[in-house]
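ok trying this again, last paste got cut off
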Amino acid sequence: MTKKIILKISFLGISLMLLLNLNTVNAQDPIPKLSEKGWRQLFNGKDLNGWQHVGAGSRYVENGLTGSHGGMGLLYWTKEKFSNCTIRVVYKMQKANSNSGVFIRIPIEPREAWMPVFYGYEVQIDNHPETSNEDDYHVTGTLYSLTKPFAKPGKPGPKWNVMEITLDGPRTLIYLNGQKVTDYTEGDPTPKRKFDYEPFRGRRPDSGYIGLQNHGDNDIVFFKEVSVKPLDKKK
């Protein structure tokens, strides 16, 4: 066997190994294939048209995802408030665990990052709150500091997660990766505030602005999709 043939076989073998490794990675971390029927995309994957950032840091768009620099800040959808709908968010953490949140029921258009924290609801993204001396009331899929999870199906980075937040009048229902995490109705009992950065207790409006949090350079979460689908009309 000539040296040239040996080199060709070696090259083909290496290429095959790289291809198999790439397919293995993709198999472990596939982008979810989700139904498009009835869903309206708010994030177009190209720019932040329709969105506005307040607070520290910034968000950017690259390769169809929105990532962030610095924090703490909030990117919110400026064009309307949302109620009686399901908000679908597809995201992945940069690290095994990263901190962020999806804000809902923000009563007025925010001008800084802390008003939504105190007066809206944050649907938490943080699989390991114990690292910051917090508990299950602060885990992914809960209303931050207000509800305890029915399940903890959050996937570590860089795996994809699909979160569906349903706003049904005063009820908030949250599914993560197909499992129910939160089912809360305004007026349900909540624990007392433990930290001064937790939201104030009290009723939120049925309709409000939504937003994505950028927590800091050490806590980056990439969002691929933010879409909305109206609830079916009740008979």
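PB: full thing came through this time. DSSP finds two helices and 13 strands in the chain.
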